[in-house]
Structure to design on (1154 residues):
């Protein structure tokens, strides 16, 4: 089992070295008083290393908030987030940034790349910001893996949407992170290009043993994952192991969009 | 980091052009001011008269406040020549290496053209109209002038002319010539013609030589010299010689108790000693370039900061991405600062050439107006450029730093969402900072009412800056208030596009604030620069107009000889003929606890000007509007003081006030009266005779005359036209005075002449102010263009949802109008408050003067500039296909 969804009292986790990220009783509310909106309600979950997990849910179910909290982009209102041994919710922003660039890779839906840098420069950006030189052999391998060896010196404007997403994946891999988060990585792509990107992510997990968490609302995209977690109204409401796209779509139709949540 | 900054700058050329332009023009302005300042500090005019004397000993024209170092810039420049004790000549002669030391007397002397009665000024040139000087023959060697024809002047009625003057006057050896000097014009005989080596005459002055005794008489000799020229033994080292002379004069070179000390100069410095006007010009250059350079930097800081703020706003997604995947807040800050530095360095280097051009142009303008002597060349050294580039890079860094602070607060999750709505709240810190700066600015304003004269005038523009800064910090609040106030009527007037404009303004208070700020700056600075001088001039003009009651004013091309007043006084039908001379005094006082030394304007007036016993009766020609004491007590050892000056230096009636006369002589007169009209006539009033021997030029500036009303009335009893006949006779007598080059003006003519000289100051301010305003206009347009272009996507979206091109334009017009009107009001209030406060300091009355046309023109200019800078780029943006624009990558 690669995913544990824990509904019991917090603080009772065994120490598990093979857990990549762990959320304990995480609640995230936006706003204050009467107008406050709970995007996540007491979520506890642990994701194992080397797994490809898709997080699904209707709009407003809290998928993005889940990812922001799990990736140290945002701080939970209560509860704790552990990346390996490190408690993220206690870290200050510069430390969080360092942690993100060393141990977490990101692939966003669009606008993944700095337009002023070449593909290769974009890939090595985290290393440069950390003040480290890129591991040349690894860079070559990563570029080869995403099939961009001959496009390394192109700027984003000269690349197609799919190529840009592959550059983003290369960048996410360059630091050999504990975890790669992909936020609707195929959302801005056509079906065929999207499939190539998903296959690439799948390979990253299978060949390199990388952990990938993907937030999506597309059942086909989710079907590439080992597990699918379903979120509704700020809570995990179910999971599927190695599902087919049809199974997922079936599940999704049962999930009512929440009334009070707006897309976060 | 530098590579990242470099590639960002390279690929985002468009955005950085705005910052580059702002920094480039800042460099040009600051470096040009720097060149003018260096010129003021170092440039000199080569000596002419003293060219043959390698070392010149003259009075030190600088006075410093006690307890300040000689290097301190806090010094006052004495307006009249400091004379040198004649006894020093012998002491200097004894110094080793001195071949001879020759004392020099200088006095105005002009050839009167036979027949026309015109007087000849100096040689043809920009700045020599007044320069025709008489000297003693003994000092001809200082140039050196050598005889080319005839003989040296031996008798009292002999004169020697330089060859250029002789040619202009058509005179040769043996001819008779009338010369107007310090007394009535009198005949001389040309005994010889001289010429300097390599020419017929000097370029800035004509020279006339008299027999030594006659020269002494004409100079109204006080036994003192204007300067002592030192001729060196062949082969003597000038530096060492100068040191030995300083040693020999020990105790007098440093400032002494009775007056300023001596200056022993060599090289070009001799020109400064020779031409006192050069020192004035230098001082003016230093003052002007200093204050305007500073303001230019502050403006640059503003404009660049707002440009970078816009850039950061445009790039917020990119920055969010950087924050998400790699960069700490600190790294983002550093990156933006590096970018700014990169742009600033390039702008600084590119700006060097234009800066020299601008400085040269300003110099040319000054020379054309006779403010700078023609021979006053620019000194272009590396220092102004180094300073300007350093200042601009620093400014760019500071500006970027403020923008970067905001950038580093961009949260990384912004990289994921589409949201481009700005946060609703305005940071509490920003409001607090705004209020603090506002309070600081207002208290600076209040303090500034304690300052007088030059100090107050110099402060003017710099006081505007804190107020504009406060407005910038509070600009979202201002925008919100303005939208609330103007939004209701606007929505009623225009229900579709006006509604959109108000909605935009309301939702984007911060953005609207950013657009308001540069316009507020333009309005505020322009208002103060343009109308500060107008306020001062108007007040002075009023006072002079109200206080002057002379029927005729006699002025002269080169001044009015001292006995003219007596001669006029003896004409039947003249009640009063009072001589007036304008000069300055230097007073040391404590200003805000600091020892300060400042030059004030002063006049020497024959006491008859104030009527019998200073009663201001029918014979009076000048009414100073005495508030305390009485001008009837004005005599030797006393002084009357204008109220503003009295408040500044702490003068009180009945007390002694230590001060230095124009030539540095320390006196301690008793204050007998305090009067209101100091601006119109002068801050200090002495009797004319109290200033004898303390003036460079012993001539009077004017004689104020009043008809004898009683005599006219008696005559009128017999014949109604007799009064006119009486004044007609006086006028005829005035025209027949035995002096050349005099003009008789009535009050109107005098007012016109007076405002012509006053407007020169105004012009200098306008010129430099105009350059500064041009810079601000460019910067404002620049930031508005950047701001508007950044809205391309928003406008494209409007088009796509069914808004016509015309409607978008109209919406932008409403929005622009809302913005511009708000800016004009806020800027106007800032300028108004500043002008009121300055008016209190400068004129004692809280009513500034804004010429109606000037005011309207300024408001119109700001509105036009603002609207054009918003609407032109809007048009350009609308020309593109909206679907292309909306899909445009950020």
């Amino acid at each position: 089992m690669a995913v544990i969804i824990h509904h019991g009292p917090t603080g009772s986790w065994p120490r598990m070295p093979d857990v990549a990220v762990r959320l304990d009783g995480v609640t995230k509310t936006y706003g204050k008083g009467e107008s406050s909106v709970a995007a996540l309600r007491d979520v506890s979950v642990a994701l194992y290393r080397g797994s490809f997990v898709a997080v699904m849910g209707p709009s407003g179910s809290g998928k993005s908030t889940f990812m922001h909290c799990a990736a140290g982009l945002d701080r939970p209102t209560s509860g704790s987030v552990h990346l390996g041994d490190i408690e993220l919710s206690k870290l200050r922003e510069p430390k969080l940034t360092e942690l993100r660039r060393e141990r977490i890779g990101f692939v966003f839906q669009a606008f993944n790349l700095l337009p002023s840098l070449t593909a290769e420069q974009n890939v090595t950006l985290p290393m440069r910001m950390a003040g480290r030189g890129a591991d040349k052999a690894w860079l070559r391998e990563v570029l080869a893996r995403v099939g961009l060896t001959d496009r390394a010196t192109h700027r984003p404007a000269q690349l197609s949407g799919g190529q840009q997403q592959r550059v983003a994946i290369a960048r996410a891999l360059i630091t050999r992170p504990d975890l790669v988060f992909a936020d609707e990585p195929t959302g801005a792509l056509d079906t065929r290009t999207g499939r190539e990107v998903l296959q690439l992510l799948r390979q990253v997990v299978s060949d390199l043993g990388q952990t990938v968490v993907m937030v999506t609302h597309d059942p086909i995209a989710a079907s590439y994952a080992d597990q699918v977690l379903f979120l509704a109204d700020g809570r995990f409401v179910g999971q599927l192991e190695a599902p087919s796209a049809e199974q997922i779509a079936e599940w999704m139709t049962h999930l009512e969009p929440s009334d009070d949540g707006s897309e976060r | 980091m530098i590579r990242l900054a470099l590639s960002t700058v390279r690929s985002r050329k468009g955005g950085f052009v705005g910052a580059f332009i702002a920094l480039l023009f800042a460099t040009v302005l600051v470096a040009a001011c720097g060149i003018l300042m260096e010129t003021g500090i170092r440039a000199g005019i080569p000596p002419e008269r003293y060219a043959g004397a390698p070392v010149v000993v003259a009075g030190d024209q600088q006075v410093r406040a006690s307890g300040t170092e000689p290097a301190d810039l806090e010094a006052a420049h004495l307006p009249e020549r400091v004379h040198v004790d004649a006894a020093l000549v012998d002491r200097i002669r004894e110094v080793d290496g001195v071949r001879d030391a020759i004392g020099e007397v200088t006095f105005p002397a002009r050839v009167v053209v036979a027949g026309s009665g015109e007087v000849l000024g100096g040689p043809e040139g920009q700045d020599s109209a007044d320069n025709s000087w008489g000297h003693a023959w003994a000092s001809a060697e200082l140039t050196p002038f050598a005889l080319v024809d005839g003989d040296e002047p031996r008798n009292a009625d002999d004169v020697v002319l330089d060859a250029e003057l002789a040619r202009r006057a058509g005179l040769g050896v043996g001819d008779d010539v009338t010369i107007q000097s310090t007394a009535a014009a009198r005949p001389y005989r040309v005994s010889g013609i001289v010429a300097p080596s390599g020419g017929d005459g000097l370029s800035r002055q004509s020279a006339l030589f008299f027999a030594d005794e006659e020269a002494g008489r004409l100079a109204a000799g006080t036994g003192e010299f204007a300067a002592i020229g030192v001729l060196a033994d062949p082969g003597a080292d000038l530096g060492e010689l100068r040191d030995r002379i300083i040693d020999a004069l020990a105790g007098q070179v440093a400032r002494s108790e009775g007056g300023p000390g001596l200056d022993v100069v060599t090289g070009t410095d001799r020109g400064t000693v020779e031409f006192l006007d050069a020192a004035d010009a230098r001082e003016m250059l230093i003052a002007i370039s200093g204050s305007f350079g500073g303001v230019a930097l502050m403006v640059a800081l503003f404009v660049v900061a707002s440009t970078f703020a816009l850039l950061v706003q445009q790039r917020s997604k990119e920055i969010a991405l950087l924050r998400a995947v790699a960069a700490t807040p600190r790294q983002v800050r550093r990156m933006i600062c590096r970018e700014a530095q990169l742009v600033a360095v390039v702008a600084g280097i590119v700006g060097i050439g234009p800066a020299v051009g601008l400085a040269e142009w300003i110099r040319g303008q000054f020379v054309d107006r006779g403010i700078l002597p023609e021979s006053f060349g620019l000194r272009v050294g590396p220092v102004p450029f180094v300073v300007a580039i350093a200042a601009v890079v620093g400014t760019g860094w500071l500006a970027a730093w403020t923008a970067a602070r905001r950038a580093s607060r961009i949260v990384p999750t912004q990289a994921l969402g589409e949201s481009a709505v700005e946060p609703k709240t305005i940071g509490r810190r920003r409001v607090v900072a705004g209020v603090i700066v506002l309070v600081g600015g207002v208290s600076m304003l209040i303090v500034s009412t304690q300052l007088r004269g030059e100090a107050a005038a110099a402060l003017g523009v710099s006081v505007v800056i804190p107020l504009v800064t406060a407005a910038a910090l509070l600009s979202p609040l201002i925008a919100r208030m303005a939208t609330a106030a103007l939004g209701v009527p606007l929505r009623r007037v225009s229900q579709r596009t006006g509604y959109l404009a108000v909605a935009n303004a309301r939702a984007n208070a911060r953005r609207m604030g950013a657009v308001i700020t540069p316009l507020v700056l333009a309005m505020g600075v322009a208002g103060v620069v343009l109308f500060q001088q107008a306020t001062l001039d108007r007040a002075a003009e009023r006072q002079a107009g109200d206080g002057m009651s002379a029927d005729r004013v006699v002025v002269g091309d080169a001044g009015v000889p001292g006995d003219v007043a007596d001669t006029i006084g003896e004409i039947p039908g003249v009640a009063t003929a009072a001589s007036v001379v304008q000069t300055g005094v230097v007073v040391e006082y404590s200003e805000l606890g600091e020892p300060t030394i400042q030059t004030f304007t002063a006049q020497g007036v024959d006491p008859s000007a104030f009527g019998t016993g200073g009663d201001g009766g029918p014979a009076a020609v000048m009414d100073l509007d005495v508030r305390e004491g009485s001008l009837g007590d004005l005599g030797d050892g006393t002084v009357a003081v204008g109220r503003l000056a009295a408040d500044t230096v702490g003068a009180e009636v009945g007390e002694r006030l230590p001060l230095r006369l124009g030539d540095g002589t320390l006196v301690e007169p008793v204050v007998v009266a305090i009067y209101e009209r100091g601006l119109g006539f002068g801050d200090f009033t002495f009797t004319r005779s109290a200033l004898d021997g303390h003036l460079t030029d012993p001539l009077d500036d004017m004689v104020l005359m009043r008809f004898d009303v009683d005599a006219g009335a008696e005559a009128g009893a017999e014949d109604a036209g007799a009064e006119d006949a009486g004044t007609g006779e006086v006028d005829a007598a005035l025209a027949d005075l035995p002096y050349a080059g005099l003009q008789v003006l009535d009050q109107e003519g005098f007012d016109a002449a007076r405002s012509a000289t006053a407007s020169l100051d105004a012009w200098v301010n306008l010129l430099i102010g105009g350059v500064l305003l041009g810079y601000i206009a460019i910067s404002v347009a620049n930031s508005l263009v950047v701001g508007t272009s950044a809205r391309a996507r928003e406008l494209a979206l409007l088009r796509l949802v069914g808004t016509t091109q015309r409607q978008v334009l109209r919406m932008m017009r409403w929005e622009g109008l809302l913005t511009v009107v708000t800016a004009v009001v806020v800027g106007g209030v800032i300028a108004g408050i500043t002008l009121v406060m300055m008016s209190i300091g400068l004129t004692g009355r809280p009513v500034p003067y804004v010429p109606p046309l000037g005011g309207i023109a300024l408001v119109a200019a700001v509105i036009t500039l603002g609207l054009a800078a918003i609407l032109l780029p809007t048009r350009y943006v609308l020309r593109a296909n909206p679907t292309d624009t909306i899909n445009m990558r950020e």
Observations:
- The first helix of chain B runs from residue 2 to 11.
- The mean pLDDT of chain B is 81.
